[in-house]
Design goal:
- The protein is mainly α.
- The protein is built from 7 helices and 4 strands; from the N terminus they run E-E-H-H-E-H-E-H-H-H-H.
- The strands form 2 sheets. A two-stranded parallel ribbon has the order 1-4. A two-stranded antiparallel sheet has the order 2-3.
- Helix 3 packs across helix 7 and helix 4 runs antiparallel to helix 5.
- The longest helix has 13 residues.
- The chain is globular, with a radius of gyration of 17 Å.
- Keywords: NADP, Oxidoreductase.
């Protein structure tokens, strides 16, 4: 989990200030519709979409602004160390979500792996994306769920 907003917990990967591209499930669905609506423009190519570029710390800040009560449990983790743990797990035959998630976090939060999409197909696929207010709306909906 990137940030457990409801329980006020987070494991900050590589300091928590690494921008990554995030999309809501509804945006992914909208992108699928967009791809199907533009077959010639999207044929035989990867398409990239995002709602917002955000950091873990920005998510936590938004949550604290909306609900300042209580305290947060924050842990720090280095994705390079997590990757080594995951490799050790794989080498010993362990293949589960605990191992795989460490590779995913390394890919999302490390420079050069592509967790932040600089070039996206949002315009072609008619994806509007979110601003800081949209992020706060999502955080608010999680807190109120």
């Amino acid at each position: 989990m990137l940030v457990d907003i409801k329980n006020k917990k987070a494991v900050l990967r590589d300091g928590g200030n690494v921008l990554f591209s995030a999309s809501r499930l509804s945006t992914v669905g909208q992108a699928v519709v967009g791809v199907l609506s533009h077959p010639s423009e999207t044929a035989n190519k990867a398409v990239y979409v995002k709602d917002i570029d955000v950091t873990q710390r920005q998510i936590i800040t938004a949550a604290k602004e909306i609900d300042p009560s209580g305290s947060w449990t924050i842990q720090d983790s280095k994705t390079a160390a997590e990757e080594q743990e995951a490799l050790s797990g794989l080498n010993s035959g362990q293949v589960d979500i605990g191992v795989i998630s460490k590779f995913l976090f390394r890919a999302i939060f490390s420079e050069g792996y592509g967790g932040k999409f600089d070039k996206v197909d949002n315009e072609l696929l008619r994806i509007e994306g979110l601003d800081a207010n949209g992020l706060r709306d999502i955080v608010r909906s999680v807190l109120n769920a």
